[in-house]
Amino acid sequence: MTNDMLMGLLPVVFMLHEFEEIVMLKPWLAKNGAALERRFPAVAARVLPLYGNLSTSAFTVAVLEEFLILTVLTYAAIAFGLHDLWAGLLVAFLFHLLVHVGQTILWRGYCPFIITSLLVLPYCLYALFALARSGAISPAPTAAWSVAATVLVYLNLWLALRLARRFEAWIGHDFAPRS
């Protein structure tokens, strides 16, 4: 498999992971929200207002925004040979997956992101090592892009969730039953 083919798989792998979150987050929060508040009140105080009030449709809008940005950046990196930039995106995604692994360990049970986190971790590691082995990426630029991408991903999460809340308000207003 060429580096470009390996790189082009990232949006697919990202969506595989996100599908688990889209499908499972709302029912998981409904079942475990009270336990989350009891066991991790500080986390619950931050997470439940952000995600608990969003419909699955609105959460999907946030995921769509992230997917579009990742896809554009991935294919721009392929087209212009920006392998270190792409590796930085991959490392940010890898960090995201590792956070999910840590969350699941702390929770000591199923969390709505762990199955696909474990499934896609090998792809992330293989892609990173394959690009490094081929000489397409270098440690210093990849590290710099990794830090920048991780910061931008978490800043963008704020934007994506804001977009989701606006979508939620729009569907609540424009699609509410009329009497």
Automatic annotation (TrEMBL):
Record's keyword terms, sorted: Membrane, Transmembrane, Transmembrane helix
Statement: the UniProt record of this protein carries the keyword Membrane: yes
Pfam families with a match to the protein in the record: HXXEE
TM annotation in the entry: 67-98, 110-131, 143-161
InterPro entries named among the record's database cross-references: HXXEE
Protein's name according to its UniProt entry: HXXEE domain-containing protein
Organism: Ciceribacter ferrooxidans
